[in-house]
Specification:
It is a single chain. With 494 residues, this protein is of the alpha/beta class. The protein contains 14 helices and 15 strands. A seven-stranded mixed beta sheet has the order 2-8-7-6-5-3-4, with helices on both faces. The chain has a four-stranded antiparallel beta sheet with strand order 11-12-15-14, with helices on one face. The N and C termini lie far apart (72 Å).
């Protein structure tokens, strides 16, 4: 008996049957034609087309075959995607608006971000075997509580926009007067947060008044006022008087805050904020195309029952040892839907854990030095731009500066020209309007970044400025140095 392969035999193999395209289709679609026929027969149909015509409404059924071309194999598709990705130009983002470049410590990237023990930990349901993860989330809560000076914090929310929306609903519930359905939002909030508040308030029958709260005359009762600290343009405002006015009218003050800035600024809890929300991304979490990144919500102890998300609490086990548990759960899975303040997808456990580890890695002094260095670089960049004839708006800022052309400039197309020069320096700036640019510095910036900014604003002239000289000048103006131990020329920037 011959075992030779015959191309004409019934057992011959066709190359097309075993192409990567066919293999992918069989692997992912599942039932083969014979199995499909059996299922169709059981259902009383002769073909998939007949079944579709019986099931789909005629209003959405189309006879036209979609013009999507022939399929490709998984291998070929990945190769095409890699080619497309290779065309990307990765520039340094100085756009700000709540997102900042950050340096993820290698130990956190390898052992948390890339470790399935951590990145698959969605919710630590079994507290008895999740003590380590619960401790990391407790650290996150403690970090937020300490920096905001609030009494209590949850263990993360989806992102800053939805955290603001949760704060809106929470403030409305705390206010208790169902007839008061209006709230005031400062135009200084980040644009994406304003849009989320607008979207989430409408179906709830709540009215968003976009007006600077300090200018609001309370002609209509409100249940809350929203401010950003520092605001989206980088300005740092003193909200003590505003908070008192808002409280005098029976409303709550909600503040969106930058965690890194709070290592230097007076925390919202000390000037009377009722709810503080924000984004923790710049604590070691890589930029992910805008997010979402782990948000936080901190408030007063009296409001904890209305706080969304989860709260890790410290308890005692049966043997008297300290133990951690989920002390507060507000999800539809756990309590009655009408009492729930969170849906199933609220937290960012992995990213909250990274933030927690980042804070532990650097410690309080390390975080403060990062903030001081970032602020100092922003101050040097601003002073240099002034020397180049530009106007820097605002007296007090942390990491973000707002720049407009000076009187000596020809403003026609100047902003667009600067944006293009920035791209040549591999920098992305924020275009606020036709006469205004925003620049936000971060942990990844250094003296080289500042020189590149100057060169973008004044090609051929920026290089003449000295970062070191301006730094010394600013120290003389301020009368003290906040940066004696911090290196402006960090080699990680190069």
């Amino acid at each position: 008996m011959s075992n030779k392969f015959s191309p004409n035999s019934s057992h011959s193999l066709r190359l097309s049957d075993y192409s990567t395209q066919q293999e992918f289709k069989a692997r992912h679609i599942g039932p083969n034609p014979k199995q499909q026929d059996l299922m169709l027969k059981e259902l009383g149909f002769t073909s998939l087309q007949e079944m579709a015509q019986k099931i789909l409404p005629k209003t959405i059924l189309s006879d036209r075959k979609p013009q999507i071309g022939d399929g490709v194999s998984e291998f070929d598709l990945i190769a095409q995607l890699k080619t497309m990705m290779g065309k990307n130009k990765v520039y340094k983002s100085l756009i700000g608006m709540g997102y900042a470049g950050t340096i993820t410590p290698a130990v956190i990237q390898r052992n948390v971000f890339e470790n399935p023990v951590w990145y698959t930990a969605y919710t630590p349901y079994q507290a008895e075997i999740s003590q380590g993860r619960l401790e990391a989330l407790l650290n996150f809560q403690t970090l937020v509580r300490d920096l905001t000076a609030m009494e209590i914090s949850n263990s993360s929310l989806l992102d800053e926009g939805t955290a603001a929306a949760e704060a809106m609903s929470m403030a409305y519930s705390i206010h208790k007067n169902e007839q008061v359905k209006s709230f005031v939002v400062s135009p200084g909030l980040h644009p994406q947060i304003i849009e989320v508040l607008k979207t989430r308030s409408e179906p709830l029958g709540l009215e968003m008044i976009l007006e600077e709260p300090s200018q609001y005359k309370f002609q209509k009762p409100i249940f809350a006022a929203f401010v950003q600290y520092p605001n989206t343009y980088g300005f740092i405002e003193d909200y003590r008087d505003l908070t008192q006015r808002v409280h005098d009218h029976g409303a709550l003050l909600v503040a969106g805050a930058d965690l890194l800035s709070l290592t230097l600024l007076t925390p919202p809890g000390e000037w009377g904020a009722d709810i503080v929300i924000g984004n923790s991304q710049r604590f070691g979490v890589p930029l992910g195309f805008g997010g979402p990144h782990a948000a936080f919500l901190a408030t007063k102890e009296a409001h904890k029952r209305l706080m969304p998300g989860r709260l890790i609490g410290v308890s005692v086990d049966s043997k008297g040892n300290s133990a951690l548990r989920l002390a507060l759960q507000t999800r539809e899975q756990h309590i009655r839907r009408e009492k729930a303040t969170s849906n199933i997808c609220t937290a960012q456990v992995l990213l909250a854990n990274m933030v927690s580890m980042y804070a532990v890695y650097h410690g309080p002094e390390g975080l403060r030095k990062i903030a001081q260095r970032t602020h100092r670089l922003a101050a040097i960049a601003a002073e240099g731009l002034k020397q180049l004839g530009f106007n820097v708006k605002g007296k007090y800022f942390f990491d973000t500066i707002l720049i407009q052309p000076g009187t000596a400039h020809n403003t026609s197309d100047l902003i667009q020209t600067i944006l293009q020069e920035g791209l040549k320096q591999r920098l992305n700036f924020r275009k606020v309007d036709s006469l205004t640019l925003g620049i936000a510095l971060d942990e990844t910036c250094c003296a080289k970044t500042v020189h590149s900014i100057w060169d973008a604003f004044a090609p051929g002239h920026g290089a003449k400025l000295s970062v070191d000289l301006i730094d010394r000048t600013l120290k003389q103006i301020l009368g003290f140095s906040i940066l004696s131990e911090v290196d402006l020329f960090d080699p990680s920037c190069f």
